[in-house]
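Final paragraph of the annual report: two paired records, presented back to back.
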Amino acid sequence: MTASAHVSAEELEELTDAFCKIDTDGNGFISTSELTDLFKAANLPLPGYKVREIIQDLMTTGDQNNDGRISFEEFISVFHGLKSSDVAKTFRKVINKKEGICAIGGTSEQSSAGTQHSYSEEEKYAFVNWVNKALEKDPDCKHVIPMDPNTDSLFTAVGDGIVLCKMINLSVADTIDERAINKKKLTPFTIQENLDLALNSA
């Protein structure tokens, strides 16, 4: 059974139109770099990290000849999977609700009146994946790495200041002397020292 059997005639027509808009040379394939535009044209805009995950999945399972191109059937299969999955429905709701921005009131009684902190779910997801990859072999971060990008584990992982200091050193090598980072027997005082070190070095 082909992937097109899983979508309605109306959806198939929309998907064909969207695919043809992107497939400008008319060869029946699009390159992976065109996939983002294709999802937008099909009224299913996805953040960059989600498209990268789909491309990676397609290349390992769907692109059987490893030519780096997506056929129309492969696109319909991916589109159908996204449309029918509960994850995709939840994901679309989050994106439609303030463009995936999470807002949190102040976290202490002094700051909670009238303040708001916000962050993008898409950026958090990408940032967590980057930190996991960059610090996966660092023995000082094993207590928090890997973080789950679908939770708020990023915010607890940076709480002791070690990950923050390591990320600063990844950005500009030797900004923070590794010997100055408190790594063992952490107390509220040594945690505060780590956080101050990261803040002052940033």
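The closing record of the year follows.
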Amino acid sequence: AGDALLQMLTIHLPSPHTAQKYRMEMLYEGPKDDAAAIGIMNCDPAAPLMMYISKMVPTADAGRFTAFGRVFSGKIATGKKCRICGPNYVPGKKNDLVIKPIQRTVIMMGRSVDQVVDVPCGNTCGLVGVDQYILKTGTITEGDAHDAHNIKVMKFSVSPVVRVAVEPKNASDLPKLMEGLKRLAKSDPLVQCFTAPTGEHIVA
């Protein structure tokens, strides 16, 4: 079954080089003729870096995450200085923006995590050391790409149906509960954790 599924994917799904030519307009928030947009459209490894982080994957280290995403343009590399843009980032402003080097670049295949020097566009990979700057999703660009816009945030056509108030059995465990809710909200893009006006901790 696994071989049949893989063969079907390779036959019927277009390659990144083909798909990004017509998907760029739906992916990129900025002008369709700037360097980042053209790099995405051509899936060009020599173009400016454009990467979208779609999921935060929990690691064995308590409270730490690997940022998993896809490189649409350019090349992401260990030690590369990048602009880490949250979903509320606006070009020209500094809100929801952090400029930091990438600690490690890894390939995630099932349970195995292999460290690599760099990953060119058209591939997925994980980044270590950026989890404290990204809540759920984000865009990573070149460190000097001041005019680069975000890649559009994924929209989910679902809304919370069940809401549950949670509390620790022992009041002394409240910090542990708060940390657990933070990790849950960060690792699952559909989960919402917030504090109600009554002071209850709500999971939706």
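DSSP finds four helices and 13 strands in the chain. This concludes the annual technical report; the extension proposal builds directly on these records.
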